[in-house]
Amino acid sequence: MFSPLPSAKAMVPFVSVDNMMRLVHHLGIETVLAELTDTIEADFRRWESFDKTPRVASHSRDGVIELMPTSDGRVYSFKYVNGHPKNTAEGLQTVTAFGLLAEVSTGYPALLTEMTILTALRTAATSAMAARHLAPKGARTMAMIGNGAQAEFQALAMKAVCGIDTIRLYDIDPRATEKAARNLDGSGLKILSCRSAQEAIEGAEIVTTCTADKQFATILTDNMVGAGVHINAIGGDCPGKTELHRDILQRSDVFVEYPPQTRIEGEIQQMAPDFPVTELWKVVTGEAQGRRDGRQITLFDSVGFAIEDFSALRYVRARLPGTDFYQNLDMIADPDDPRDLFGMLLRAKENEETI
């Protein structure tokens, strides 16, 4: 007698947008950011155990659609993500995403989740991890250039992980700055709204740039950047899109996630193919030096990498047991006799006819 019900392995936990928000509020946003930072750092410490490949990208004049896969040999993950800067004019998100974890041993999915919110969290956590290793000790002020969907996550991650207490905001659209200031009200951060990028970076030990225009841009020029700062450049994430003048790169020690991807998509796409960079995982493990002195300019040229998404997915999976912040989806055809998929299909019709 064959069971008409799917087996446990066929049921895949799914975290919807609503449940992701419930999970984050249940744990606390700053707690999630701090724990996610530690999870990402733990995976950076075992960087060499992962499969690594530049993301698979489909570019168009409207934006980009990407797949980001990786595996540590036991668990496989991928993320689907897009980047469409024009979407905001139509009331749509610039970036949307979903992701999946699977068992390498069977190939069966183990988690499916929204990743629009989760990507914002992991991007901020990765920035905070980099700043923890590269920013000046005792840094308390961050300039946030670009006050779109990522800004508040960046601010709260820097507060939770690095002890930042002051945020200086600037965006070419004053409404974006007003939105970010309003959302961060009550966070415990001192919020200063600025009228220019130059004003925003005055007195800031950490400068984060995160703009959405899909073009070569100059958000910061060389004369604006003083000695000793740490720059998180997270807006340049595809070919033809940068934020910093190349002279800033010449003066900085540049740290990256995965050079083959960053040389195509990051700020360093402006530079020669042999422009020197340091992989961030080597700083995390102590194999390479990060900040050397108080006058050094450090620059994290971050484009986002699949291992960070892997970390975020495994963090969510670990946090779900004992909660109701997910639902089981009957996603996998899993007949009692694995050789009789067609028979399962026939029995489904028979069961329907008897109802």
Outline the structure in words.
The protein is α/β, with parallel strands linked by helices and 355 residues long. It folds into 2 domains: 8-117 and 308-339, ornithine cyclodeaminase, domain 1, CATH 3.30.1780; 125-304, Rossmann fold (3-Layer(aba) Sandwich). It is built from 11 helices and 17 strands. An 8-stranded parallel beta sheet has the order 9-8-7-10-12-16-14-15. A 7-stranded mixed beta sheet has the order 2-3-4-5-6-1-17. The chain has a two-stranded parallel ribbon with strand order 11-13. Helix 2 (29-44) crosses helix 3 (116-134), helix 2 packs across helix 10 (306-319) and helix 3 (116-134) crosses helix 4. The longest helix is centred in the middle third of the chain and has 19 residues, at 116-134.
Which key terms come to mind for this protein?
11 helices, plasmid, 23% strand, eight-stranded parallel β-sheet, ODC_Mu_crystall, ornithine cyclodeaminase, domain 1, alpha/beta, 355 residues, Rossmann fold, Ornithine cyclodeaminase protein
Classified in CATH, the superfamily of the largest domain is NAD(P)-binding Rossmann-like Domain
pLDDT averaged residue by residue: 93
H/E element sequence: EHHEEEEEHEHEHEHEEEEHEHEHEHEH
Strand order of the largest sheet: 9-8-7-10-12-16-14-15
Distance between the termini: 18 Å
Reading off the top of the CATH hierarchy, the class of the largest domain is best stated as: Alpha Beta
Major sheet size, sense and barrel closure: 8 strands, parallel
Low-confidence stretches: none
Gyration radius over CA: 22 Å
Structural class: alpha/beta
Into which percentage range does the β-strand content fall? Answer: 15-25%
Do you know the CATH topology of the largest domain? Rossmann fold
Number of E strands: 17
Instruction: State the domain count.
Output: 2
How many helices in DSSP terms?
11
| Level-2 CATH architecture of the largest domain | 3-Layer(aba) Sandwich
| Range of helix content | 25-40%
